[in-house]
Design brief:
Order of helices and strands: HEEEEEEEE
Radius of gyration: 18 Å
Strand order of the largest sheet: 1-2-3-4-5-6-7-8
Number of helices: 1
Mean pLDDT: 85
Structural class: alpha+beta
Strand content: over 45%
Low-confidence stretches: 3-17
Helix content: 10-25%
Largest sheet: 8 strands, antiparallel, barrel
Distance between the termini: 47 Å
Length: 129
């Protein structure tokens, strides 16, 4: 009986720890990300603008992308989930305001991946700090 109780406590602790690790904090999004969009290199930068705003919890965050061609593409953050794990943002490519769904890794917050849709096709991306 005691062994079963110990196993149950360990299982509960592992579940709680996993759930706690899945939650992210705002600063974990900030930084310079090496960004691979379907294998094409670029750089994504997420910063704190220090703006004093009340429209959303992420209104003071800015996102920008610079592709291998060196062109800066400005972006906007659409939403971030309540656990700060999933961010939806848009990049204003010329002629295409493209939406990205990004997810921070639960065990390594220096990595994120996700998808975007362009011209009816879904593409993946991976980013690392």
């Amino acid at each position: 009986m005691k062994m079963h109780l110990n196993l149950a406590v360990l299982a509960l602790a592992a579940t709680v720890s996993s759930a706690a690790l899945a939650d992210a904090q705002v600063p974990e999004w900030y930084g310079n990300w090496n960004f691979s969009l379907d294998g094409r290199p670029g750089a994504l930068t997420i910063t704190d603008t220090k703006a004093d705003c009340a429209s959303s919890a992420w209104c003071a965050m800015a996102v920008n992308y610079r592709g291998a061609n060196g062109v800066l593409v400005r972006g906007t953050i659409v939403t971030i989930d309540s656990k700060w794990q999933h961010m939806r943002f848009r990049l204003a490519f010329p002629g295409n305001n493209q939406t990205f769904d990004a997810y921070l890794f639960s065990w390594d917050k220096r990595k994120m991946s996700g998808t975007t849709v362009w011209n009816g096709r879904t593409f993946g991306f991976l980013a690392t700090k």
